[in-house]
Structures are given as C-alpha cells and as structure tokens.
Amino acid sequence: MAWGQGAKRSILGLLFRAQQQTARPYSSSAFQTHQLSTHVPQDGVFLRRFSSEVSSSEQMNLIKQLRQRTSAPIKDVKASLVACNWDIDAAQKDLRKRGVALAAKKSSRTAAEGLLAIAQDDKRAAVVELNCETDFVARNDVFQYLASSLAKMALSAQGPGELFMPFGPELLENMSINLDHPNLSGETTVQNAVTEVAAMVGENVKLRRGFMLSTTAHGVVSSYMHTCPQPGMGRIAGLVTLEAEDSITLLDAVKSVGSSIAMQIVATKPLFLSKELVSASALENEREILRTQAESSGKSQMAMDKMVEGRLRKYFEEVVLMEQKYVLNDNTNVKTVLNDLSKEVGSKVTIGNFIRMEVGEGIERTEAADGSEVAAGAM
C-alpha cells in the first residue's frame, strides 16, 4: 500500500507525542488523585494509611507508647491511632471512649477468673475478689493494682466491732478511690475505676464479693495466700482469727500458729469450726449415706452401728477444723496445737472465725462445643 508524504508526517507526529507522554514522570499528586478516584472510604482512613508523614518505624513506636499508656489490645491501639491520624494524645482519648462503650457491652459476659487481694494489720483483714474472663488479664499490672487498691479500701471502710462480715460490690461501688498508677490516675468512684480497667484490658471485669474479719484486743488475724503473683494476692485465701483471754507477750508464737492454721484452711477446706457447730442437716445427711454403705456389708446391726460411728469420726476429721490433723504434723490435730499454744503463752487461745475463699467458686461452668470450659453463670 502506498502512503503519501502528508499521511506519513501525521502518523510520525502521533507516535512522537505518544512516546513523550509515556516517558513523562507520573506525579505523586496525579497518583494520589488516581487512587482517590478509585476508592475513598467515608471515614478518610485511606488518606492516612498512605500518608508519608508518619514512617513505619514511627508508627510502631507510637503503637508501643500507647500500649504502655493504656494496656489496651494492640488491635484497638492501632485502630485509634489510624483514626486520629497518629496523634497519640487524641488516640488515647478515643481509645478510652471506645473502651468504655465496649466494656458496657461486655458486662453481661461471665467473669470466672481473676484474683483475691488482701489488706490487713494485726487486728483486721479484708479480702476482695476481682473477676475477669481469662487468667491472662489476671496477670495484668493494672488489674492487679486495682484489686490491691480495692482491698485497702475495704479495710479502711471496716467499722468497729465487725468481727466477721461478708459484703457485696454495692458496699464499695459508689465510694471515691484515688488511683496512683501510670495508666490510672486521679480520683473517681470504684464503679468507674472497674469500668475503666475493663476498657483497658478488653474483658468484663467485676468486683464480685469480699469479707472483713477482725479480732478482739488480745487476738491476732493471720492469713495465707496460695498461687501468689505478688504479696497480698492469690487464687485461694485462708484467714483466721486467734483470740486470747488475757493480754499476752508472746505474740510471735500466736502469729506463727495462726499462719500455719490459715495455710491448713486453704489446704483442707474445713466447713465447720467444731463438732458442736456441724449443722443438724449436714450430720443427718452424712449418717444416711454411712448407713446405706454399712447395710451393703451384710453384717449385724451392732457391727453396722459401729461402722457408722467410726466413719462419722472420719467425717469430722475431714470437715471440722478443730478435729483435722495438723498440716505441719499429722501426729496431732488442730485442737491439740491450740492447747499447747495456750500453755506456752499463759492464756487460753481459741479460734474466733475463719474464711476460705477461692476465685470463681460458686460460678457454674459448662463445656463448650469445642471441649473448652466456659463459665455459665455467676453469683
């Protein structure tokens, strides 16, 4: 096919202009305009995500700093920083607002893990149970600080003459608490403090219950904590008061025995202080079980009666604190230990009250479809 000179010049001119357009650098503004024309989310996150103002290393540093400030999950920390264009102060406020809202939504979820915290002096003790959903959160520094602060508040709220008093969360919830922690500061109510910690850790957090225990002028309060992440905290607590009839000088001996009996309470789970205090219903129920067991032996009535009484003594040794074998020396029992202590200090020493508490006890658990254990309800 023949081409005229005019047609050749036109075609060469078009090719030249196309070559120039291809070689021209693609400006960043043009690239951004092209990107924005394809997809622009309403919240504007797209622009910030591709912003060159905050480098990757700076972003990681900001995430780390905000995590240290708030103890919030890393996913929530990053989301708030992105939403606030990497302004850490604004992100901290945003994170707090989000967290409080989420904490309210999670408040219906059952919390069966957590910690017991105790505060005490020689004459008084207070122990509280602060619950969360996982033992991971129970190891969180902010969670532990709050539990310790609540125990101290309960101790200061204890009135005179209250030798033994269980209490619920309503006793403390509306009281003012002054928090002095890098991630928690200022004066607020106990209820708000619990909500704020729940917002930080991303789980349901609840003050469940507590006990106050005190003794007379000549007594001491002793305690023992099992599975302690730090002093004054644990998953199982034993508390006991030892009362002396007269003033004594050998208080260290009384405190030493008191500590060992508190440990005994944790280890052996006594239900009653003495045989006389065993409830009639509990005693009759146990007798009925023992009679049924004895009848299956086929022995005479006299032999069966002896079997029942012998096994009943064993029952007392299991559930009655004074009848239990002493945890430090199984050749004797707690009653004998107290008698020996009374002779040593020159005044009769008795047990006033005792408490055993365990995290999550009384909370019903069910098995999930995947085989894991799930809490189904709480007291």
TrEMBL record:
One of its GO terms (molecular function) is translation elongation factor activity. Keywords: Elongation factor, Mitochondrion, Protein biosynthesis, Transit peptide. Belongs to the EF-Ts family. This is Elongation factor Ts, mitochondrial. It comes from the Eukaryota. The lineage of its organism: Eukaryota, Viridiplantae, Streptophyta, Embryophyta, Tracheophyta. GO terms for cellular component: mitochondrion. Residues 125-361 form the Translation elongation factor EFTs/EF1B dimerisation domain. SUPFAM superfamilies: Elongation factor Ts (EF-Ts), dimerisation domain, UBA-like. InterPro entries: EF-Ts_dimer_sf, Transl_elong_EFTs/EF1B, Transl_elong_EFTs/EF1B_dimer, Transl_elong_Ts_CS, UBA-like_sf. Pfam families: EF_TS (PF00889). HAMAP family: EF_Ts (MF_00050). Associates with the EF-Tu.GDP complex and induces the exchange of GDP to GTP. It remains bound to the aminoacyl-tRNA.EF-Tu.GTP complex up to the GTP hydrolysis stage on the ribosome. It is found in: Mitochondrion. PROSITE patterns: EF_TS_2. Gene3D superfamilies: 1.10.286.20, DNA helicase RuvA subunit, C-terminal domain, Elongation factor Ts, dimerisation domain. Its main location: mitochondrion.
